[in-house]
Amino acid sequence: MIGLLAATKMELADLLPIDTFYDQANTLNVGHQNLADLAKKYGTPLYIYDGATIRQQILTLRGLLNRFYPGNSEITYAAKAYFSLFFARKLANLGVGVDVVSLGELEVAKKAGFKAGQVHLHGNNKDEQELTGALAWGAQAIVVDSLEELEFLGSLAARLGKKGRVWLRVTPGITVNTHQYTQTAHPASKFGLPIQDGQAGEAIRCLKKSRWLTLTGLHAHLGSQFFEAEPYQLAVARLLELAEQEDFVPQEISPGGGWGVPYNLKGKTNDPQSWIETVSVAVIDEFMKRSWPLPRLVVEPGRWISARAGMVIYTVGTTKTAGDGTKFIAVDGGLADNIRPALYQAEYTAIPVEKQDSKSFHKVTLAGKFCETGDILIPGVDLPFLKRGDLLAVPVAGAYQLAMSSNYNLAPRPAVLWLEEDEVLVMQKREQAGEMSWWLGE
């Protein structure tokens, strides 16, 4: 990592793809691909994913699991973070599993080459097509979310004459320190079977009697974008207390994912060791004290694998000063390709694609182009004096941006590239204004 702002070199490096640098012409490169050249060729907004960073993130997690967990384990990518056919094929070739939440994600996983035994179907309101698709394909687990779904799935399996493997998504009654919209295990959550009122225990008893469904594991997901490892330990303990009460020995256990990543220089470390170590030790301790054989441990990172690998390049348009003195820089993207600042009050940073004198930086508000007051990407960010046509890069753009993108204001969605040191591959072509078939009724 060379040539970035000296005062924040190490912190900024943690936000960027692993091989990011300013070249001799003072232009930002990722994987030895010049971002200005890519923007000129493919247009902006332009999303890039760095293949080396994806591989590094997966290898880091595998190394930690091998270090701390002596039993079988699996990394299962949470597809909702970002999933396209090209990206899914890359992940399948890297040997990870996939956690899907819709028929669309299920079909992409199948086309991408994932094996059925690597696929888990999640969701709080799976419809008949989704459940039938998972049963017919032989998905490794359908993660049952409610007693009603359990009954419905059992009737579908009987009608199809197709046995299925299931996990139970258990709500352990834990509130983690994150945005309220991404807390998923508290007592009022829409997700999962609560322990406290007996629903989770009833589901286990029902499955023990089922002819068509086999319970193989227990699952919990505490939330997203949090950095404290202790809640995982508590969740594992509650899952195993439930299992012991119901005389059920899980073959598989999944405490979910959700480990956070930093988005700006104020963010916390993205080191996952405390997460993986805490989960591993908790599972080992809880199973050993019951003299049960260790289960297959499944972790479900999405954001942690893809976020840092992604970056978006914008072109500056209007620069202006508001009546109260606020200085605005507007770019050619915003709300339609990154809803997170408006939805979650997510805080990012930005860096110029063409290196500027650090003494010329001033505090500005980076605004999007969409017809909403809330379309503010970064309030109060230090940027140089930019003009129309200059390029800006926003790092940590690989998760929950494109996955939640829209055609608001009938804006076309951006091109997406996969970068390697020696090649550039188009993962998704840019939509063209006036050629978006859904809006034209085609």
Structural features, described:
With 442 residues, the chain is of the alpha/beta class. The protein folds into two domains: 6-43 and 309-440, Lyase, Ornithine Decarboxylase, Chain A, domain 1 (Beta Barrel), CATH 2.40.37.10; 52-306, TIM Barrel (Alpha-Beta Barrel), CATH 3.20.20.10. 29% of the residues lie in helices and 24% in strands. The protein has 13 helices and 21 strands. Strands 4, 14, 15, 16, 17, 18, 19, 20 and 21 form a nine-stranded mixed beta sheet that branches. An eight-stranded parallel beta barrel has the order 5-6-7-8-9-11-12-13, surrounded by six helices. It has a three-stranded antiparallel beta sheet with strand order 1-2-3. A hairpin with a 5-residue loop joins strand 1 (20-22) and strand 2 (28-30). Helix 4 (85-93) crosses helix 5. The longest helix has 18 residues, at 51-68. The model is unreliable at 1-10 (pLDDT under 50).
